[in-house]
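Posting for a labmate who doesn't have an account.
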Amino acid sequence: MKKMFAWDRIAPWAVVLLCALALKLYYSSASANELRWILAPTAALVELVSGTSFEFESYAGYISEDRGFLIAPSCAGVNFLIAAFLMLSARRLLRDRSQGSAWGFIPAAAVTAYGVTLVANTVRIAIAMRMGRLSEITGLTSEQLHRAEGILVYFGFLLLLFVASEKIINGKTSSLLRRPLFPLLAYYAIMLGVPLANGGYRRGAGFREHSAFVLLIPLLLVLTFSALRWLRKPRYSRSG
């Protein structure tokens, strides 16, 4: 029992959770000016991919040259960054629980999460800029479509990050059917757990609709991804 609750095992968990909480609190009240550390590189990458120029407007964000699209604080992807950081850190801590963890994994997880966030932001915004009148085809409102697209892109990248990290560390891809909790719980904790703890349920129908999207889309992605891997596996085993 003493070993299980030894300080060298509790301390890394405490530091990881405090880092995530501190960033979440900072983001909850940060302006576009205070988020330029992530908005500026995101805007630069979107410019590179889309060919559209963006200009910074104080306290608003990066606005496109035709004034038709704004990369605002809500586009910063900080919630995704926190979820990615928590997922990578928790996986590392649980994997190394029998031998203790070197502290170097914390900045490594933070840098990795930041880099993946910039790519995910770029993909999400580039797609959003080209969705146009897609809401008329899908039957969703523009807000619902934007929400669904954001969840698909961000959680899709979280899954890819999980699979890639397993491949790099273990030399093989871990089955999401066996370990679906890492990406799912990290995403649900930030996108649902924190808003619920802050009284998000008081917002009524809007929050319930948001919660339904957040709950169902990631679950469907995990099941789809796992089903595809399961369908591919028998063919290799039979041929061997």
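Reply:
Got it, the structure tokens are right above this. The longest helix spans residues 205-239.
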